Amino acid sequence: MSRDHVQSAERPTGDPEAPPYGAEAPYLELLARGVSADAYEQPVLLARAQGRPAEWIAALEHAKLLALRVRSELEGRRRREAELSALFETAHDLAGLRDLDAVLQAIVQRARSLLGTDVAYLSLNDPDRGDTYMRVTEGSVAARFQQLRLGMGEGLGGLVAQTARPYVTDDYFKDARFQHTDTIDAGVRDEGLVAILGVPLMLGHHVIGVLFAADRRARVFEREQIALLGSFAALAAAAIDTANLLTETRSALAGLERANEIIRDRSAVIERASDVHDRLAELVLRGGGVHDVAAAVSEVLDGTVEFTDATAAPAQALEAFRTEGHAVRHEDDWIAAVAAGGELFGALVLRGHPGLDPVDQRTLERAAMVTSLLLLARRSAAEAEQRVRGELLDDLLDARDRDPRLLRERASRLHADLDATHVVLAARLDGPAADADHEADARRRLWSAASHLAATRHGLAAARDGGTVLLLPLDTGDTATDVARRTARQLGTAVHEAVTVGASAPVEDLTARPDAVAAAYEEGRRCLDALRLLGRSGDGAAAEDFGFLGLLLAGDRDIAGFVDRTIGQVVAYDERRGTDLLRTLDAYFACGMSPARTKDELHVHVNTVAQRLERVGRLLGDDWQTPSRALEIQLALRLHRLAAAPIRH
């Protein structure tokens, strides 16, 4: 379809009431102002009130949907940034812990703000009295609720404490999973609470309290919100643990007041702990990495700290850490697992320090916790970027978004240049799948590897049709074949399985011709299917690699390119020298490749035929008369003759 036809399909012409290209302008203004979602209906309502044509209304409706999608994505990103920022701020408070109540109050305030609940509160177990009590509340208005003391095992908090697992109820008074008491129900009723989420505060495998978020109306808490509250609970438990440790340390120092050397040693240990906490907080705030954390802890603990994958660390030590919640000694090393939400990322290993002070042990554990937060933050950011890249490529493939300016802006934010020449590649795994789960896992690994490759090459990638599609820029001096083979090799190395890749011919003007991306993808898929049929699994190729079969695979049927690649040098030689090599080749093949019959057909001496064929061999290569080459040359001769023939009316 020509560019004019594309434009005419996008908006009617000749109608003074037709919607302009700027139909999305009011929504860009609404996005810039950050107004509520309700305001996005106003431009459509105003256009209808003014009696605008249906095309105008449709354009505004389409722009509204896109704007709301962008607004939702922006709000999601702001929410994730706020969550990570709050976690990092809380970690910073913990690193510089001076007032336990202030830290716990900050944790409850941030949990309530980020989850958007009416009330948030934290209860702690009292081992001396055998019950639990409210320690911190935020948003509470009922005095009886704020002063509640509950027997162990009562209410939703008792269920959380018994099972050491998060629990949520959409309607507290209708939920029979936990034990109701008059005291608890009266306090909850005074506060007007309906939906309640509780997560345990854990020290090792012991529950020391519960962190709650609650609403005065029915509400369903999402999995991400439960995980976020769990992260705050972990920080609260760490704050309590740190406060207890500091209290124990102060008691020990008071009891050993006459032992000056012990006091000095203990003070030095505490100073190192405070120093490493400050350093870890600084690393978090300035975006440091896992190895930066290991280096900082190495310096403070006077040893060598390394981050290792879960597969490289002793499994028994990791299991002991996850059970006890403390760093574990393994031979002459100390090991602290780096984990979050039941997922194991790896471990911090302290080497060459068999005798570890309890405070230094806590320092190693805090470093492991900070490392897990950094890994979670980086993974979340990477997954968000991968999704955005996939969405843009999906839009290009499906030709839903035809605004070139918007396409360029979206690509620019991903450091991709849609004005450059690109190649569309279809990639698929060729290894046998043991079962459906194994196949799904293999596809996810392929998509992840392709997304990483696309990000490093300033391209795009998306999962599609049981495989992956990539849009990669074509570097100077590269061909589509080079890109396909290199991509097959890189993806196969990343996923440890054979990956077959089919490439399209180079594609230009992606924003001006959105349909070209979809057509190029189909061409790449045909090349992929051809490779698999030919038994070339794990290889990469483009249509140009298949000779005349490439004409059948190519989406645009590049006949001129095929002719030029096959006999272009002979054509150029005839044009420069005024020779008759093309006519000689035609006659040679028509006469069954017999020089004797060819000289009769051309009315020349047989030596002349031999000289011309020798010249052809020098131009096309010594193998030009092999069956496969001869077939391609004959096809190219016929296509060249048809292209040069005049059109008769």
From TrEMBL:
<dbReference type="InterPro" id="IPR042070">
    <property type="entry name" value="PucR_C-HTH_sf"/>
</dbReference>
<dbReference type="Pfam" id="PF01590">
    <property type="entry name" value="GAF"/>
</dbReference>
<dbReference type="Pfam" id="PF13556">
    <property type="entry name" value="HTH_30"/>
</dbReference>
<comment type="similarity">
    <text>Belongs to the CdaR family.</text>
</comment>
<feature type="domain" description="GAF">
    <location>
        <begin position="99"/>
        <end position="250"/>
    </location>
</feature>
<protein>
    <submittedName>
        <fullName>Helix-turn-helix domain-containing protein</fullName>
    </submittedName>
</protein>
<dbReference type="InterPro" id="IPR029016">
    <property type="entry name" value="GAF-like_dom_sf"/>
</dbReference>
<dbReference type="InterPro" id="IPR051448">
    <property type="entry name" value="CdaR-like_regulators"/>
</dbReference>
<dbReference type="InterPro" id="IPR041522">
    <property type="entry name" value="CdaR_GGDEF"/>
</dbReference>
<dbReference type="InterPro" id="IPR025736">
    <property type="entry name" value="PucR_C-HTH_dom"/>
</dbReference>
<feature type="compositionally biased region" description="Basic and acidic residues">
    <location>
        <begin position="1"/>
        <end position="14"/>
    </location>
</feature>
<feature type="region of interest" description="Disordered">
    <location>
        <begin position="1"/>
        <end position="22"/>
    </location>
</feature>
<dbReference type="InterPro" id="IPR003018">
    <property type="entry name" value="GAF"/>
</dbReference>
<dbReference type="Pfam" id="PF17853">
    <property type="entry name" value="GGDEF_2"/>
</dbReference>
